[in-house]
Amino acid sequence: MDLSTLQREFVAAVFAPDARPPVAIIDDAPGRTARFAVYRNNALNNLATALLDVHPVVARLVGPAFFDHVAGQYASAYPSMSGDIHDYGGHFAEYLEAHPAAAGLPWLADVARLEWAWHEAFHAASPPPFDWSALAAVEPARQGDLCFMPHPSLRLVRSPYPILHIWEANQPERDGEETVDLNEGGDRLTVLREADHAVAVERVDAATYAVLEACRLGRPIADAIAAALAVEPGADAAALLRGLIGRGRLAGFEGG
Amino acid sequence: MDPLARHYLLSLQALVERFEPCFVSDHLCWGSVDGRYLHDLLPMPYTEEALAHFCERVDQAQEFLDRRVLIENVSSYVQFEGADMHEWDFLAAVARQTGCGLLLDVNNIYVSAMNHGFEARRYVDAIPSAAVEEIHLAGFDVSGDLLVDTHGRRVADEVWALFRHTVRRLGAVPTLIEWDTNIPALPVLLGEAAKAAAILDEVGHGSLDAAA
Known about the structure:
The complex is a heterodimer. By secondary structure, chain A is mainly alpha-helical. Chain A has eleven helices and five strands; from the N terminus they run H-H-H-H-H-H-H-E-E-H-E-E-H-H-H-E. Chain A has a three-stranded antiparallel β-sheet, with helices on both faces. In chain A, a hairpin with a 5-residue loop joins strand 3 and strand 4 (199-203). In chain A, helix 3 (56-62) runs antiparallel to helix 6. Chain A is globular, with a radius of gyration of 23 Å. The termini of chain A are far apart. Helices cover 44% and strands 19% of the residues of chain B. Chain B is built from seven helices and nine strands, in the order αβββαβαβααβββαβα. The longest helix of chain B is centred in the N-terminal third of the chain and has 18 residues, at 48-65. The interface between A and B is medium-sized, with 35 and 32 residues.
């Protein structure tokens, strides 16, 4: 059997529901299945462990039996398409959202989104320091055309549910006794890795969220500020922008 | 076969430039097909076709990184029909044809020898000694009739014996204890490192690096 065919059969057999090993494997004691099972178990465990490492709060909320079951289903539905296992799990939130068994927990997918955002923020690149002097050198008339770039770790998560409270109440060190009122309102959150490598999750107002979302889409700052004023007409645009750069949420700019 | 992952080599090159390691190594295995990754060290069929392919990849990597790389043997649990080359002959041919160095994992030799019923010393004796730049030692777990490489316990007595045999043949090659699951108290790891150092000293002027 040529190498390509062998590799295809091997990977197909790892995820095949009938658990039969690939035909190319030599059948000797203690038997094909037991030997091949080492690879099957490794592959599935690696993926399930990666998913669990990224989503400890979701796992706590649904319990280990449900989580393991869904992780196994997810591994078959969403193969790992990157050699870096840190890239694995990016579709877990949408998978949970569509999963009939999780229909009674409508906020669960947004908690998974927050955990994925935290994970991505943690592993994101570090940008060079913000170049204030380059900003000062831009002609005032052209400042509105600048596109401000979010910090590479910045993630925005929005939910109609109080996911920050759910996430905080279900951290591993918490006792789980706290009650979260699902009617306490939705969240607009920023997730950002700070200079000390800690990842900060913070609730922000609608104007801040609107500016950052526009910047993330690559829109010029004049448009981003207009978007902020549309949701919060009284917002102080200059203070808002200074705050976003000062806190490191915006890390650079292009144009000008 | 999946194309060589150029973006990965670029990242690796950046890492090498930043840290300037003595050696860059990877395993005698495969890990993905059709872009789907298993994040595991998957067994090669030891055929002429696989050898030509593997050597071509080692050549490409060495050319890209502009340095000699080391290739490390893995533990395996299956063998394939029609793949009748011995792993040690395959590994020796890779070193000969590409000029790469070898990273000999003595625990992996022992694990595969037990799983497939070959003589572990025969493997060690077939390895071109000048190519070996580093040795790995680790502990394995027993699962039914199989030995499984887990890096989660002390090096087994049989593996120490095989290490002694290897060092007698190759000399005092830098040796690393791999222990990255079920991590013990530091003195336990240091004890393993001291044991390896004593064996290396016995045969010559040993140097030793130990890490968890």
